[in-house]
């Protein structure tokens, strides 16, 4: 596991961009109160998802409006048709952690890689 930031650094309904050993991560505090992490690039267009809008457990790409379910990475709105990698988030002692592999890179929980 690798520490990303303090949970207080990500207010509810916001997204923080992080880099984990060269992997861009969108760390989301959903409006449902849960924390999520996704690869910080839309699968439809190469733009940062961390610039998007949060609603519940979904994140909307700011450019074309594709929405992604942050629990599964699956698109829930066009034009995206391919999922994005998502990562398990652990909140421990007020800090947010992501699992990493032996190579130090985050390990997707949905098996999708980029």
TrEMBL record:
PROSITE patterns: RIESKE. The keyword Oxidoreductase applies. InterPro entries: Rieske_2Fe-2S, Rieske_2Fe-2S_sf. Keywords: 2Fe-2S, Dioxygenase, Iron, Iron-sulfur, Metal-binding, Oxidoreductase. GO terms for molecular function: 2 iron, 2 sulfur cluster binding; dioxygenase activity; metal ion binding; monooxygenase activity; oxidoreductase activity, acting on paired donors, with incorporation or reduction of molecular oxygen. Residues 2-98 form the Rieske domain. CDD domains: Rieske_RO_ferredoxin (cd03528). Pfam families: Rieske. PANTHER family: 3-PHENYLPROPIONATE_CINNAMIC ACID DIOXYGENASE FERREDOXIN SUBUNIT, FERREDOXIN-RELATED. This is 3-phenylpropionate/trans-cinnamate dioxygenase ferredoxin subunit. It comes from Micromonospora carbonacea.
